């Protein structure tokens, strides 16, 4: 517990935006009487968010959203915070994982906060007895938003959810800078391999993929991008990256990072094409992008150590990091996104949760954008913390921007 508390103390000092929100929450208690159920990566930055919600008066029940991303010392320390109940455990079985989610749902939360939508999925499929208590929810990541939009399109989603992932203050900082830096850091810390000069293949050029690609290029790698979207592929080309299908990239890549949020990106058809010693990693939420199950079944030998599973295929070694799970969190040395990045994302979560407390009952079931006022507020608080001042529109400029009859 001591080390967990130390990690939380360290993170807190680099999270001024969330700190300013916590100070206001402590004074006004806007979440008094609210029960919040959470399934997130339980590590130090998440703990600071949980402390903030509890400081606002909420009773918080939390578990993990990935079997390998919990830091047990942080989970232990978090469970000692007044008003917080933590059920997360690292390296839990599938049954233990869902048992913990159900313990959160046993608290009958009125607000849900998810990363990947497993909590909401369980709520809608096996715990519909709790649905009537839920006012609204928040979703943190791309994969979860995809699933929620599918539910909403089919009329299956039974309450409103804020798509925290889709707002500019999340995409441009968490997805780009957070995923970019933390994924590469985890790969280097886990393998101790030099990445400068190597060919690094990034699957997907969305916000996460472009963050990885840009950061990797800055560190001296030769970046190859694979895509299925012609517009994103063209964007990657215009930024100077090599673009090719995975069938071709598999032959030249030395390090691979999947960021698509989709299934079956590196599969049985690609494994025989890989170079000896290829390193495979995933930065998408679920462990479906690399077909690890095929390797488990067909590899001649497997060696497991410190977040690396080595498979031998036709005398070639293929190294898979973190069992194909989130490389920046699921490796033993993975610390997740940088603290300052998560300060912004979790500030969005805290304010979006408050928004749902205040407005959720007035919203129909569906997926909603983060209100622009909240997005701008987080940016404004961050600039203030950095001591940066910016201009403001004059009345003349506001009039010009809103008028249609002003010509040349």
Automatic annotation (TrEMBL):
Q: How is the cofactor bound?
A: Binds 1 NAD(+) per subunit.
Biological process terms in GO annotation = one-carbon metabolic process; S-adenosylmethionine cycle
- SUPFAM superfamilies per the UniProt record, alphabetical: Formate/glycerate dehydrogenase catalytic domain-like (SSF52283), NAD(P)-binding Rossmann-fold domains (SSF51735)
Name the positions where NAD(+) binds. Answer: 141-143, 206-211, 227, 283-285, 328, 337
Boundaries of every S-adenosyl-L-homocysteine hydrolase NAD binding domain copy: 175-334
The cofactors required by this protein are: NAD(+)
Q: What is its EC number?
A: 3.13.2.1
InterPro entries, per the entry: Adenosylhomocyst_ase-like_sf, Adenosylhomocysteinase-like, Ado_hCys_hydrolase_NAD-bd, NAD(P)-bd_dom_sf, S-Ado-L-homoCys_hydrolase_CS
A UniProt-annotated Pfam family? AdoHcyase
List the record's Gene Ontology CC terms alphabetically. Answer: cytosol
Q: Which GO terms describe its molecular function?
A: adenosylhomocysteinase activity
Which of UniProt's keywords are assigned here? Hydrolase, NAD, One-carbon metabolism
User: What is the enzyme's class at the highest EC level?
Assistant: hydrolase
Q: Which PROSITE patterns match?
A: ADOHCYASE_2
Q: Which family is annotated?
A: Belongs to the adenosylhomocysteinase family.
- Protein name per its UniProtKB record: Adenosylhomocysteinase
- What organism, scientifically named, is this protein from? Methanofollis formosanus
């Amino acid at each position: 517990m001591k080390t967990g508390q130390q990690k939380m103390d360290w993170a807190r000092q680099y999270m001024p935006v969330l700190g300013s929100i916590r100070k206001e929450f402590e004074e006004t208690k806007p979440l008094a009487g609210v029960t919040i159920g959470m399934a997130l990566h339980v590590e130090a930055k998440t703990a600071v968010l949980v402390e903030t919600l509890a400081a606002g008066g909420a009773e918080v029940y939390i578990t993990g959203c990935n079997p390998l991303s919990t830091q047990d010392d942080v989970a232990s320390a978090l469970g000692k915070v007044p008003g917080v109940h933590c059920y997360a455990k690292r390296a839990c079985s599938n049954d233990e994982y869902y048992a913990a989610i159900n313990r959160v749902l046993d608290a009958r939360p009125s607000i849900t906060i998810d990363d990947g939508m497993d909590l909401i999925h369980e709520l809608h499929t096996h715990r519909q007895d709790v649905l009537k208590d839920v006012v609204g929810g928040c979703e943190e990541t791309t994969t979860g938003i995809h699933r929620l939009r599918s539910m909403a399109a089919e009329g299956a989603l039974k309450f409103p959810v804020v798509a925290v992932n889709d707002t500019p203050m999340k995409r441009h900082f968490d997805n780009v800078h957070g995923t970019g830096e933390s994924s590469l850091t985890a790969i280097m810390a886990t393998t101790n391999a030099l990445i400068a000069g190597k060919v690094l293949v990034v699957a997907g050029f969305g916000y996460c993929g472009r963050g990885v690609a840009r950061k990797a290029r800055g560190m001296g790698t030769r970046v190859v991008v694979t895509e299925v979207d012609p517009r994103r592929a063209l964007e990657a080309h215009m930024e100077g990256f090599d673009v090719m299908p995975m069938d071709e990239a598999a032959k030249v890549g030395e390090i691979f990072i999947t960021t698509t949020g989709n299934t079956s990106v590196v599969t049985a058809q690609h494994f025989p094409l890989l170079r000896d010693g290829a390193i495979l990693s995933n930065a998408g939420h679920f462990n479906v992008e690399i077909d690890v199950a095929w390797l488990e079944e067909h590899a001649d030998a497997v060696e497991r150590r410190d977040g690396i599973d080595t498979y031998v295929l036709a005398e070639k070694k293929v190294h898979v990091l973190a069992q194909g799970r989130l490389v920046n969190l699921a490796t033993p040395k993975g610390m997740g996104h940088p603290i300052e990045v998560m300060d912004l994302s979790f500030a969005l979560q805290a304010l979006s949760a408050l928004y749902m407390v205040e407005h959720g009952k007035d919203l129909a079931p569906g997926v909603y954008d983060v209100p622009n006022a909240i997005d701008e507020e987080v940016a404004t608080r961050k600039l203030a913390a950095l001591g940066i001042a910016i201009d403001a529109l004059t009345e003349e400029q506001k009039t010009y921007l809103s008028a249609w009859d002003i010509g040349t």
